[in-house]
Amino acid sequence: MTEGRFTLSPATNAVLADLGVPTGQLLRAAGLPEDLFLDKQATLTPAQFYRCWTALEEISGDPALGVTLARATRAETFQPPIFAALCSPDLRHAADRLATYKRLLGPLRLGVDTEREGLTLTIRWASEPLPPQSFIAYELVSLVALARLGTRKLVRPQRITMPEPPRGAAVQAYQDYLGVPVAHGAEPTVTFTASDARCPFLTANSEMWQVFEPELRRRLADLDRVESTADRVRAALLELLPAGRCGVPDVARRLALSHRTLQRRLAAERTSFQAVLEETRHALARHYLERPDVSVTEIALLLGYDEPSSFYRAFHQWSGTTPQQARAAAT
């Protein structure tokens, strides 16, 4: 994934006003120009994006900022991809639309897994810079808020996990809002029951979706003009690998390209799908091996391998060592 830049929502000032946080104070604390939000074309890098979130959390003094923002959600502060998701027939369709257009909203990506029981959504990001854990918590909570807004029901997730769950005063606030505790897990995920995933959205609006879709596709095309095909493939693989969907057809479908066009564009960049796949798996393996809470078996599954032995063989080919030896050397 490239570092990228993300256009700020025009509603940013309204959100800050609702929280009682002065815009200038926030930007100063984040080390950014105080007049940044006056520029309609202002953009942030992921590092700047995360600094703004950290500054917001510190200035607000709110240990459960994610819950506060979810409770304060208003239609006028939505960005087009969120409106598009709410126009969907149900949560499953909304998740697919968010997975496609989420990179318009910021530096995180959304993985969608409908093959397991129910619907599991996973928050993912590039290895660097790392997002604040409280921001990841907000992203998970916002998915629950989306389900509730669409169905107008008090949807409770079946399960919600994070590598570093909320602590201290935030624990109860998150549990009260979600209806379930945030458990420890290798990845940030929220799982909804099959029934909740199929529950009709009362906000469904196919006509409105037809209005939003052309503009969203245009904005994606603008991003794609500055992203290489290899970068786009890496980003898609981050979403698809944990579900075991890492073939050319899976990635081509995600990128809305034909198999032949995808292969041709990669060849023009002097690489191949297999090379990008191996590079992505190797980088992710190194990242996960630095986390002692994730077992080697779990890493193999997260990288899309059916058997741990396949991961062992691949890792040895990449590095000339075993995963355990690489983990020991990194600690």
Briefly say what this structure is.
This protein is an alpha+beta fold and 331 residues long. 54% of the residues lie in helices and 8% in strands. The relative contact order is 0.10.
Structure description:
The chain is of the alpha+beta class and 331 residues long. 54% of the residues lie in helices and 8% in strands. It is built from 17 helices and 7 strands. The chain has helices at residues 12-19, 23-29, 46-60, 65-71, 80-86, 91-101, 133-151, 170-178, 194-198, 206-224, 229-240, 248-254, 259-268, 273-289, 296-302, 308-319, 323-330, and strands spanning 6-7, 43-44, 109-113, 119-124, 159-162, 183-184, 189-192. The chain has a 5-stranded mixed β-sheet with strand order 3-4-7-5-6. A two-stranded antiparallel ribbon has the order 1-2. Helix 2 (23-29) packs across helix 3 (46-60), helix 5 (80-86) runs antiparallel to helix 10 and helix 15 (296-302) crosses helix 16 (308-319). The longest helix is centred in the middle third of the chain and has 19 residues, at 133-151. The relative contact order is 0.10.
